[in-house]
Amino acid sequence: MNFKNVVEILAGFITYGIPVLSFLWQITSDFTDKKQIKSIVSNYNYQNNSNFDFKDINIQNGYIQVNNPQNINIELKNELDKFEEEILEDKKFLSDNLYIISFLIISFIFIFNLIINDWSNFKNISSVWETNIIKDNLVLSFDSTLKQVLLMVLIYIILVVIKYLLDKQSLIKTLGFILAFVLYLFTFLEIKNGFIQIFKYPIILSDFSMFISLLVALIVLSFLFFSLKTLIERLCSLILVYKSKIKTTLINTISSISVVIAPIFILVIKFIFK
């Protein structure tokens, strides 16, 4: 197994393995949390000769919600609040570290792509700034990494949709991410033969062309990483919560909608330079 095969395996794992494993962990975690809540309620009922109905409790976006809060005892509520803090802490820890790990591995993949793209040409380079080989390979590496991240975002969107269906989230939210999937899929197919490579100018402007290419690549990847972070949070059932319900809904809706900024930006740039 050569170095290129190792990079391809690593790229495949970050693209498919990590999202699927995190999804399975979430499903298992949600099931375990529900069993734990049922246990808390059962123990309370047994110790206090109470008959509080477990069905009146559900978990939504990491928060424990009680359908009939006027019927719940303060002691039981305190126990549920304490467990809720543990759930949220676990989800935030997973979400943050999953994003950091994904970011680091994708960065390594970009470097590996840069190294393995026409590696034989690197051996004869006397000066990086006197040849176009490095420039060409930078563009190719950015294109490879861009497609890799796009594909990973696509997979995360699919998993978020499945998670929303399982959690019985609102139809509008689910349809929103389905539309996002269609947009990302269309974008991925549009740039499968290269995106950064479309910024080609005459040789006299090659340095300017390189600057534009790298600038666009960095902007697109920044948007994609932002989308990736939002999708990981949604997969982990995390939202921003404020005292105002209107503000909570508005901020989280804007955050979810912003996921489509990256593909729209790519399509607009591609149309302009087509």
Overall description:
74% of the residues lie in helices and 3% in strands. β1 and β2 (63-66) form a beta hairpin. The protein has helices at 3-48, 74-116, 119-122, 133-166, 171-190, 206-235, 245-257, 261-272, and strands at 57-60, 63-66. It has one domain. By secondary structure, it is mainly α. It starts with a helix and ends with a helix. α4 packs antiparallel against α5, α4 runs parallel beside α6 and α5 (171-190) packs parallel to α8 (261-272). The protein has eight helices and two strands. A two-stranded antiparallel sheet has the order 1-2.
**Overall radius of gyration:** 24 Å
Number of domains: 1
Q: Which strand order does the major sheet show? A: 1-2
Q: Give the tally of β-strands.
A: 2
Shape: elongated
- Proportion of helical residues: over 70%
In whole angstroms, the N-to-C terminal distance is: 40 Å
- Give the ordered list of helices and strands: HEEHHHHHHH
- The tally of helices reads 8
- Strand proportion, as a percent range, falls in under 5%
The SS-based structural class is mainly alpha
Biggest sheet: strands, sense, closure?
A: 2 strands, antiparallel
Q: Please state the average pLDDT score.
A: 79
Low-confidence stretches: 125-130
Task: Write a concise synopsis of the structure shown.
This protein is mostly helical and 274 residues long. Helix content is 74%, strand content 3%. The protein has one domain (3-24, 99-272).
